[in-house]
Amino acid sequence: MNMNKKVLMTVVLAGATTLAMAQKPTEGSPSSLEVQVNLAGEGSTVVSPALKYRYFLSENLAIRFGLGFGGSKTTENVTENGDGTGATGSREVKTSNFNVAPGIEYHFAGTDRLSPYLGLAIAFGSGKTTETWDNYADFGDGGGYAEGVTAEVNSPVGSFGFALLAGMDFYVAENLFVGGEFGWASTTTTQKEGDATVTIDGDTSTGTTPEQKSSSSGFGATAGLRLGWRF
After folding, report:
1. Is 120 exposed, middle or buried (0-12, 13-18, 19+ CB in 10 A)?
2. pTM of the model
3. pLDDT tens digits for 196-226?
4. What backbone torsions phi and psi does residue 19 show, to the nearest 5 degrees?
5. Which of 77, 87, 99, 231 has its CA 20 to 30 A from that of 162?
6. CA 144/CA 172 separation, integer angstroms
7. In terms of Cα–Cα distance, which of 180, 190, 182 is closest to 215?
8. Which domains does the chain have, with CATH numbers?
9. pLDDT tens digits along 140-178
10. Residue 64 to residue 106: CA distance in whole angstroms
């Protein structure tokens, strides 16, 4: 057997041994830290791409604390004429959000490496939405090109939600696990009263935007993939 084959065989055997020895901890490692990548769309999610800390009070019961964060940027381009010709304008919308999500989990017996659980999480969030107009105006039933009109609209955003969760940890190495999580979630989002600065042909005025509320709920809204370390 040549040297390259020996090295490959050693790596394969080491990986197989690690997998064979991997078992979920039952004592001595009460904490875990993980990264979760959310698979749901915007609006109906309680957890965003997030970090989560978990502390096991017993073999079966754990408390959890999540930190979620996210943001987006969209641009709507408009033209002077309906056929796409003439001067252009745009509306840019930026959002940013941050949330904290405490909760609790109950872990079932599972297998030597698999730890299924049910849980409950509550999320409190805050953020901001900023709109920037350039040769653009909102006409009430939609926006479009408006020569000489620019604006900036800032609105703080708050949210509250809860989720009933089901998930699992699968230990692929000592104290290292991968997993998934899904469930039913409900979220209420409040876009609070904001401020607007509008300039029309060089004349600037300021005003406020009204408060708006929206809510959403659904099964699978918290779906995510997880990678974590138990210590």
Report:
1. middle
2. 0.74
3. 999 999 999 999 999 999 999 988 655 678 8
4. -65, -40
5. 231
6. 54
7. 190
8. 23-230 (2.40.160)
9. 788 899 999 999 999 999 999 999 999 999 999 999 999
10. 11
